[in-house]
Amino acid sequence: MKSRALALLFVLAAPGAVAAAEITVLCPRAVQQVVAAAAQDFQRRTRHTVWLSYGTSDAIANRALGEEADVVIGSETALAQLEARGAVRRDARVVIGRVGLGVAVRAGMPVPDVASERALRRAILQATSLGYADPAGGGQATHVTQLLETLTIAALVLPKTSVFPDGRRTLDALAKDRVALVLAPISEIVGSDGVKLAGPLPEALQQTLVYAGAVMARSASADVAGAFLSHLRSTEVREQLKAGGVEPGD
Questions:
Q1: What fold, for 7-98+210-248?
Q2: pTM attached to this predicted model
Q3: CA-CA distance, 1 to 115, in Å (whole number)?
Q4: What distance in Å separates the CA atoms of residue 191 and residue 183, rounded to the nearest whole number?
Q5: In a 3-state reduction of DSSP, which class is residue 5?
Q6: CATH topology for 101-205?
Q7: Which of 9-13, 61-65, 133-137, 171-175 is least confident?
Q8: Beta strands 161-164; 130-133: pairing state
């Protein structure tokens, strides 16, 4: 059963030749903004309705094992695990794009230099407070704690660090001046109001996650689900992905 508390229903916009169908897409918050925009465009071109249901990366992967849905989006690793357990169709997976981690500050604040390992370390140490998503939620948040250890500052910044349930709430806290500096997926940063991307992590410290989508094995509208995934690979959506902090897949 679809949860209206978690799902966003985009209203049907344009007529088409195919009978209208309704699909549910399970989507991690790291690509929420770009997938939502693509869903709106998909509906303008078809008679189909798209429900988007969001959550952390681990929550989405777990829900895909038992929920009735048509499309699941996640890391390539997560989708491979779902495929092995029979939750998604083996011939219906497409790469959406790659997302790296970045540093964010509140809009209007000076932007620190984070271009090198030394500069990033200094920026984190000088920030009055630090925030990031709870690593227990999976996704790239797990890399942040490893990053702080690599920079040998984990113990130093612990007293000024706040951990939030997910990236959205982390960036909301930044916009409201509850934290001064945030580490988060670039796609979440550029899709949030009131914050600014200071820059990506230096290449040697970067972690890039490849997101893909697959048709669920239990989908009652597999053709429409497949069409939506194909739409995510279209030229128009590729431009939206780039603007949204996602490097489109090949």
A1: D-Maltodextrin-Binding Protein; domain 2 (3.40.190)
A2: 0.84
A3: 46
A4: 14
A5: coil
A6: D-Maltodextrin-Binding Protein; domain 2 (3.40.190)
A7: 9-13
A8: parallel
